[in-house]
Design brief:
binds magnesium ion, InsP(3)kin_ATP-grasp, kinase, alpha/beta, Rossmann fold, D-amino Acid Aminotransferase, Chain A, domain 1, five-stranded mixed β-sheet, globular, about 375 residues, binds adenosine-5'-triphosphate
């Protein structure tokens, strides 16, 4: 007889509503999977057991840096998962922590360039500004090492203020940067962003509006302050996203290159639910990775529920397989070493990925 399969969701109200969790609960019920909404304010053990936990604790993780209540909630969650290594966690907290810090996530993006052969993929040149104030020396280095225009983003990659950005056009504008931040070269991509949404072994690419092209090189133009949600949401409409008439047409992304980026990041991060923002450089055609997001909204992906359900079922089957192996005489139970590896939800180890590209797709 099959035992009851239980999946816990730990999401804040906003994410729960956005995702339409109620509808997903129904879908799971029809497939014999019980969904429990975890209340972090109560002991988790009494709400379990869980085969899989899906969470988005990004805000708790960011708040825990300065708020003792959030710190306690996070400790409760970490305590539970450490004590239940057979529960699959989507996704592991250390990987998520890397993506909450743009300094760490930009290093991951930078690594893609060498990991994927053929110069198809890159990330824009950038500079970390960690001090609370900009020094003359840093300004000088930024001017010499980063081509203008430059886009300035907060170091913390989560929360409402993390979407406040600025476009800096010349050396004088660098004083408008508000550290700690990242200064990154702006890449012309003819106002089209490709949001790649990953769910386990599947991924989906959706087009979004994005920033228009700007002349390369420095100018006296005043810094433009903007909120990224005004330029790259499905409904975004801003003068910053309207292409000038003479602008070059956007170049389409290559599916194989996108697949190579996803394969590489899945293995690097060990995550199942994440998003990658890719733009295609209008001049060079290079696929440029500008952002990696934790458990994104999957807006525009009607297959999200079915892909998530498939992924959960795959994990449950793997888990059941691991339990059977453990129970057999050749594989007596040994403190869960094999299972804890198998049940972290970590995708297969990295294999070298070389995109097979159509002859027309030149970088
Ligand atoms: N280097 C760049 N060159 C050109 N455009 C860029 C660059 N970096 C960011 N953008 C534009 O700014 C937008 C916001 O950037 P980014 O994705 O880094 O911010 P975010 O607020 O963290 O995004 P999200 O909403 O995905 O969390 C992008 O969607 C894109 O339109
Ligand atoms: Mg983004």
């Amino acid at each position: 007889m099959q035992t009851r399969r239980r999946v816990g969701f730990c999401l804040n109200d906003k994410k729960r509503k956005r995702m339409n969790l109620e509808a997903f609960v129904e879908l799971c019920r029809n497939r014999g999977i019980e969904v429990i909404q975890i209340d972090l304010n109560q002991p988790i053990a009494v709400q379990g057991p869980f085969d899989v936990i899906i969470h988005k604790l990004s805000d708790v993780m960011v708040d825990a840096e300065h708020d003792s209540q959030s710190q306690q909630l996070l400790e409760r969650f970490e305590g539970y998962t450490a004590g239940h290594p057979r529960t699959v966690l989507l996704d592991p907290l250390p990987a998520m922590r890397r993506l909450l810090d743009r300094f760490a996530s930009y290093r991951i993006m930078e690594g893609l360039q060498t990991a994927i052969p053929g110069e198809w993929v890159c990330s824009p040149p950038y500079m970390e500004i960690n001090s609370m104030e900009l020094s003359e020396k840093q300004l000088d280095r930024a001017q010499r090492s980063l081509p203008f225009p430059i886009i300035c983003k907060t170091r913390v990659a989560h929360g409402s203020s993390s979407h406040e950005m600025s476009l800096i056009f010349g050396p004088a504008g660098l004083w408008d940067a508000r550290p700690p931040c990242v200064l990154q070269s702006f890449i012309n991509h003819s106002a089209v962003l490709h949001k790649v949404f990953v769910v386990g072994g599947a991924h989906f690419t959706v087009e979004r509006p994005s920033l228009k092209n700007f002349p390369r090189g420095h100018s006296d133009r005043k810094t433009i302050f903007f909120n990224s949600h005004d330029v790259s949401k499905p409904e975004s409409s801003s003068h910053l996203t309207a292409l000038d008439e003479e602008a070059a047409l956007p170049r389409p992304p290559c599916d194989d290159v996108i697949a190579a980026i996803v394969t590489e990041l899945r293995a690097e991060l060990g995550m199942s639910l994440f998003g990658v923002d890719v733009i295609v450089n209008t001049e060079t055609g290079r696929h440029t990775v500008i952002d990696i997001n934790i458990f994104p909204g999957y807006e525009g992906v009607p297959q999200f529920f079915s892909a998530l359900l498939n992924h959960i079922e795959t994990l449950l089957q793997e888990k059941e397989g691991a339990c059977e192996t453990r129970g057999s005489p050749e594989h007596p139970t040994q403190g869960g070493e094999v299972e804890s590896r198998r049940v972290t939800g970590t995708p297969p180890l990295k294999t070298s990925v070389t995109p097979t590209l159509p002859p027309s797709a030149t970088p």
